[in-house]
TrEMBL record, chain B:
It comes from the Bacteria. This is Ribose transport system ATP-binding protein. PANTHER family: CARBOHYDRATE TRANSPORT ATP-BINDING PROTEIN MG119-RELATED, GALACTOFURANOSE TRANSPORTER ATP-BINDING PROTEIN YTFR. It is a peripheral membrane protein. Belongs to the ABC transporter superfamily. The keyword Hydrolase does not apply. InterPro entries: AAA+_ATPase, ABC_carbohydrate_import_ATPase, ABC_transporter-like_ATP-bd, ABC_transporter-like_CS, P-loop_NTPase. It comes from Phyllobacterium myrsinacearum.
From TrEMBL, chain C:
Keywords: Cell membrane, Membrane, Transmembrane, Transmembrane helix. InterPro entries: ABC_transp_permease (IPR001851). It is found in: Cell membrane. Its main location: membrane. The chain crosses the membrane at residues 20-39, 51-70, 77-99, 105-125, 137-156, 176-197, 228-248, 308-324. This is Ribose transport system permease protein.
TrEMBL record, chain D:
The chain crosses the membrane at residues 6-28, 49-69, 89-109, 116-136, 156-178, 209-232, 263-282, 288-310. Pfam families: BPD_transp_2. It is found in: Cell membrane. Keywords: Cell membrane, Membrane, Transmembrane, Transmembrane helix. Its main location: membrane. One of its GO terms (cellular component) is plasma membrane. The keyword Transmembrane applies. This is Ribose transport system permease protein. GO terms for molecular function: transmembrane transporter activity. The keyword Transmembrane helix applies. It is a multi-pass membrane protein.
Amino acid sequence: ASPPLKKKDTYKVGFAQTESNNPWRLAQTASMQEEAKKRGWQLVYTDAASSAAKQVADVNSMIAQGVDLIFLAPREEKPLIPAIKAAKNAGIPVILLDRSVDPSLAKAGDDYVTFIGSNFIEEGQRIGEWLVANGKGKTKIIELEGTTGSSPANDRKKGFDDVIAKHSDFKIVASQTGDFARDKGRQVAETLLQAHPDANVIYAHNDEMALGAISAIEAAGKVPGKDILVLSIDGGKEAVQAVVDGKIAAVVECNPRFGPKAYDTAVAYAAGEKIAPNIINPDQFYDSSNAAKLLSSAY
Amino acid sequence: MDTDNLLSMTGIDKRFAGIPALSAAAFTVARGEVHALIGQNGAGKSTLIKVLTGYHKRDTGDVTFDGKPFEVSSPQQAQANGISTIYQEINLVPYRSLTENICLGREKRRFGLLDWASMHREAEGLLQRFNIRVDVRRPLMEFNTATQQMVAIARAIGFSAKLVIMDEPTSSLDEREVGVLFNVIRQLKQEGVSVVFVSHKLDELYAVCDRVTIMRDGKTVKTARMDKIEKIDLVSSMLGRSIEKAEGHATAFTARDEKNIGKILLSADNLAVGQIVQDVSFNIRSGEIAGFAGLLGAGRTETARLVFGIDRLKAGAMTYGGKTFEPRRPSDAIAAGLGFCTEDRKSEGIVPDMSVAENMMLALMPKLAKSGVIDEKAQREIVEHFIRKLGIKCSGPDQKVRELSGGNQQKVLLGRWLAMNPRLLILDEPTRGIDVGAKGEIQSLIKSLADQGLAVLMISSELEEVIEGADRVFVLRDGISVAEFDRAAATEDALMGAMAHGNAPVVEEAQI
Amino acid sequence: MTDTSQTAHTGKRFDPFDFLARYGTLIALVLLILFNLAFTRNFATIQTLNVNLTQVCTIVIVAVGMTLVIATGGIDLSVGSLMAISGALAPMIFLGKIIPIDNVYLAVAAAMVVSIAVAGLFGLFNGWLISAFRIQPIVATLVLFIAGRGIAQVMTNGNLQTFRVPQFQFIGLGRVLGIPVQVILMALIVLAAAWMLKRTVFGRQIIAIGGNERAAELSGIAVAKVKLLVYAISGLCAGLAGLVVIAINSSSDANLVGLGMELDAIAAVAVGGTLLSGGKATIIGTLIGAMTIQLVRYTLLANGVPDAAALVVKAAIIILAVWIQQQGRAHA
Amino acid sequence: MTRTRFLSLLGSYGVVVALLLLILFGWLRYDYFLGFFNITSVLRYNSMFALVALGMCFVIMTGGIDLSVGSTAALGSVVAALFSPQGTWIGLGAGVGAGLCVGLVNAMLVTRLRIMPFIATLATMLAASGTALLLADNQSVSVSYDSGFTTIGQENFLGFPIPAWIALAAYIAGWVVLNFTSTGRGVLAVGGNEDATRMMGLPVGRIKFLVYLASGGLAGLAGVILASQFGAGQPIEGVGWELFAIAAVVVGGTLLTGGVGSVGATLAGVLLLGILFNVLNFENGKGWISLSAYWQSVIRGLFLLIVVILQAKLSSRGNAAARDH
Ligand SMILES: Nc1ncnc2c1ncn2[C@@H]1O[C@H](COP(=O)(O)OP(=O)(O)OP(=O)(O)O)[C@@H](O)[C@H]1O
Ligand SMILES: Nc1ncnc2c1ncn2[C@@H]1O[C@H](COP(=O)(O)OP(=O)(O)OP(=O)(O)O)[C@@H](O)[C@H]1O
Ligand SMILES: O[C@@H]1[C@@H](O)[C@H](O)OC[C@H]1O
Ligand SMILES: [Mg+2]
Ligand SMILES: [Mg+2]
């Protein structure tokens, strides 16, 4: 079983963030920090700057500092295993946020307490299924992938592509990385729209690239939402606004506000409650039918 | 002896970008002889040597060495085959110790690892042959040019070579050191080693060489026994025309008219700078040629650097044109009308990848420019004028300066400063590495410039140059100006006496 | 004196290697265009030209500054971070986060001038480290490479700034006579720099410093001043490029603006034929180098080459382009 | 000892002084900083950078640079992971072999095609990273946990992490090569004046060839440790390692222009920069700078600035030229 957490009024906890290079990550960090402040807990925050190896070192330095519990947003499934094992050996419980680790190498409830987050594969699936149902003849897809090699990119691709593969009338005409970034997403979209003038759907693995793609579509003299459907994942305010404006057709939420639930889970764990091995965030799905109504609650 | 040739090169051709540097050159060296190789700047001496040692690849021609056809593609192979070379530009590694500079390539080992103790001993031993006693563990860059040159020579003779090539080894040595080098050359000769000796100082050739080969325009025009050829014939073969015998003069400096000399322009009192210069005082009048004499390391260059604003004064004061003079950087000195032709043209003079024109205009350019824009036409005229006036051998103003021979590079630098039309020109070894023909031209140029009112501070290790050229001579020794002679008093004996003052070793233990 | 009528050039024969050295990259560019005409769909369109030109702008603008820096024998790793700084600062000014300015035009003008100037000042700081302390350029500019982005992130707390300010975004989205404004900016900068390098004293001094710094100093060139200026210019170019990027995207993200730009710019300079050792430089070459790299990127994307394979191809093309020139140079 | 001599010594050992000061600072300010757990985990993690920096040090001493080390390590980790089921030694050999291959390409590009090192290794940096992604199918590759391969990265020997021992051995070997072999002296000579070294008859090409090969091999070895320590070959790891290594080498007093350098000071440079990261993490625990992780970059930049300015000041005053034996 994973190491116990003593019941105390206040804790010193660690949050090992994987990177801080996009709005989503910043929102997640902010949420974790705000919640710590609210509760008066001491938070040791580290930023692995996109390196799984550094993230392990960061976790080790938290262990050395003697934190009570570690929140870990693992950069990758496999390389973070040693960090989880080290924490376990040191008697420090770990709660995974947002991305999980390889289940064959570490088990929830045993090596770590639980995983709280979304299911990236499912996100891809949901968007794919929406397209299949609501595409209305828009069938030629350009896919803007996340950072090559990162797990959200791989999973969001897998979930989506699997759905599309089952429908022969849909076709992914191009799939290239836009690095989860607006500028890169825009440039790649510009190029792919040139090379595939018949494309009429752009599926982006996150909001930033989707917003970049909208600029690209407009620069090419086309109308997003009319000539080309844009699909996205994350569901930040700017993207939901774009849904309201008709520029994005649909977006799956992937909410970064982990703070409250993460700390609640820690408290429940200390109290000896039984924690489910997987706590999946109930993520919204925005399209023209609900975006205006839900805009104010988007993160 | 002539039948038993160690080296024979025939029909050697070498072109650079289509332009011939060597055409059908031929060269033979007998076993155990000291063979002089001479010619004007750009005649092809260094190229011939570099072709032999595999630094350049020859276009055509045959080479036989030690009885076998000789084909090497790198200096390394040449060395392994018994040819050891001291190239014209000192080619050593400044940051590394003297020991490494001497022993790299034939290190001593113990248990497979370098044996530093015995390498240091070897380096010390080799340098002692040149009367140099220094800490061989210190990096080369801490030593003056002369010591560096000796290190290069020590390195070359340290290889048990059959042929040692020396491309202008004496250009940065003073007479005493030249004497030491000659003893070493004679020793080599006794050991049966052949030596190829390149120099522009013809007198030296008579002192050590057995035979001479003369090059002109990439061809070897004549080979003769040293004792069978007169100096005048050497010169006319080099230049390719007959010349008059200069009456009683070793240089082209001729008597000057005292009335050309004006008021004191620069005066320096009790200067001290850096490690070497302790107390130097001198003055120069406009229209005067002032000479600095001294042994290597006496502090002449350091003093000049100070005047030009490169280094900072530690003590003392200068006035220039009657006013206090404290140049903080070269541009201050230049703005005041000074020019400085440095002794180390490779590292402080030329910009190798720039053209002859660009190099020559480097200092003048801002003055010719109109609101920062270069005046190409005006520049061109000036450059062409100086190419003609100085007889620079180049394919045109646009040729890269790196492609010029050493002597011609020197002339380009001289042009750089003459073009500035300065009031005071500092010339540090102005004729080093310059052939006799050009040397004479440069010397008479200096004189005529002085006649027009230019003040010249001339540093030279060639005593004749100072004696015949300078109106007054200041002698420096160990960073102190020890004597001043006017033209009449500046005899060789007087200067030598003041310079040497006893028999101190050539280079003292570095005082760090 | 010596006779100077020697070495008459035996006519100007065609020298294939010299030709390669001079036009190698241009040839590569032409070949790429031909390849695309044959194999890439929808290539021969104005919009393709548009896409490529607008995408290459920022690299070219930065690479021009980089060319000057490299010509002095230096290098500037900080350009990407400086882009982030100016990109972070400008919206803070025109969105009135620092001091509210009522007039939009005034606010935009202030934002542009101040943020470019700040980038220039940071460039000056690089130059100061390099000339006053004689710190190696790679290391000196590594300082701001690391800290510069941090400064931009601290300024914005890492947050994305989004905006719709057409007056400002004109530099990224506007057109004059149908030509995108950023392309015009790029062209002006390229021409000005090329002219400066060839025709002015300053240009000549830059090359001289790269060719032999000591000789330059002894010829009265104010080496420290020239270096300060060159790094400042590089900073200014980066600052402008940062503004163009955020203008196109209607948003500024301190974490990402200019990320990796230093390597793109250096590659463009090298592929364009400027020696990294200094003492030689060609601005037009840099333009062609940047376009070549851009077109390679376009070609690979348009033809669906996966990212991983594209990296390998890009590597091969950089080597090829540089090698061709080297061949030319070695034989010339 | 004269004043200049003292300054010169301080110039060469300044980095050691800085390192000791930083450790002292950490010890005084943070609990557990010098705890056994922290020491060993810092050593375990930084051993990869130490290996990469050692290779970089040799390359830089010849006046070159190797930007490919990070991606080469990533590639090495992927290849090692792929071969790890075959056994520890095979995995190790494969990873190092992959690194040597990249090193070989660099060496060929630099010495045969005469491509500037910066560009040659910039290109192989891209190519190695692409190759790693291709081999790994864009994902991390799990190592075999059964073959014992993870011993290399995760186990201890005499109480200290095996990676640290490997790095130590590599540094000792590097020190011997640099100071007691002709190739080592050749490395410094080439960096000091390549043309002169060629004219002196030293095998310049071979020396440069060897340093790039060695740098590739060491990066591959770092990749093996990466795979073994974290249980996965990671194609997207290694970003920025080259700059870390360059900074460490320079902080150690090695001149980027080549010709002067020290293996020991490079190690001190690695530890200095590596421990700085650790210190920043501990500082975060104090809650002082943790509000914004971005301050960390600013602080790291400032730190580098201070160290290089001190270096520059010391070496110009003390004329810290090469005197290392
Ligand atoms: N690398 C090169 N590229 C082009 N031309 C060259 C090159 N090296 C030498 N030359 C040319 O070859 C000719 C011979 O030069 P070399 O250096 O052999 O002359 P030298 O006789 O040694 O003269 P000096 O007495 O001045 O040293 C010169 O005209 C020179 O410009
Ligand atoms: N012990 C030393 N350590 C470091 N540098 C030295 C030392 N001795 C001489 N030098 C350098 O060597 C150069 C020549 O020194 P100096 O000015 O004393 O000689 P000089 O009289 O001009 O003779 P020459 O220039 O002909 O060799 C100077 O640049 C000086 O800095
Ligand atoms: O879209 C998000 C991406 O930007 C971040 O890097 O990882 C988590 C994802 O949900
Ligand atoms: Mg010569
Ligand atoms: Mg001198």
